[in-house]
């Protein structure tokens, strides 16, 4: 069974390669993603949604990661469409499976609205 930190590391490695299939076996059947620009429910929507964002990502730099027995917070710099923003990603793991991801950030730099 993978630890929450290992799952978070795999999630971001999948993001870097824009291939989330290796993460599929670590997704809870009811995995959710909720963020500033959208939400998904279930493994298929999850993989489709995060793959789309990963493909649009120009750069991603992890700044810090904190983990405990079930949760991981990752702070990172994200560049999409020439815009740059700082993001916090909370991942919740239950019984070795990624159950929920929540992200928050200021989307204005990514939408061309300054920031």
From TrEMBL:
<dbReference type="Pfam" id="PF12680">
    <property type="entry name" value="SnoaL_2"/>
</dbReference>
<feature type="domain" description="SnoaL-like">
    <location>
        <begin position="9"/>
        <end position="94"/>
    </location>
</feature>
<protein>
    <submittedName>
        <fullName>Nuclear transport factor 2 family protein</fullName>
    </submittedName>
</protein>
<dbReference type="InterPro" id="IPR037401">
    <property type="entry name" value="SnoaL-like"/>
</dbReference>
<dbReference type="InterPro" id="IPR032710">
    <property type="entry name" value="NTF2-like_dom_sf"/>
</dbReference>
């Amino acid at each position: 069974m993978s630890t929450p930190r290992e799952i978070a590391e795999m999630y971001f490695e999948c993001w870097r390669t824009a291939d989330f299939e290796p993460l599929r076996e670590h997704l809870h059947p009811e995995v959710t993603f909720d963020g500033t620009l959208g939400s998904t429910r279930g493994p298929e929507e999850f993989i489709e949604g995060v793959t789309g964002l990963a493909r649009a990502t120009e750069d991603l730099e992890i700044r810090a990661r904190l983990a405990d027995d079930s949760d991981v917070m990752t702070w990172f710099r994200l560049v999409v469409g020439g815009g740059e923003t700082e993001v916090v990603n909370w991942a919740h793991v239950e019984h070795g499976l990624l159950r929920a991801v929540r992200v928050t950030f200021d989307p204005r730099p990514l939408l061309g609205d300054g920031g």
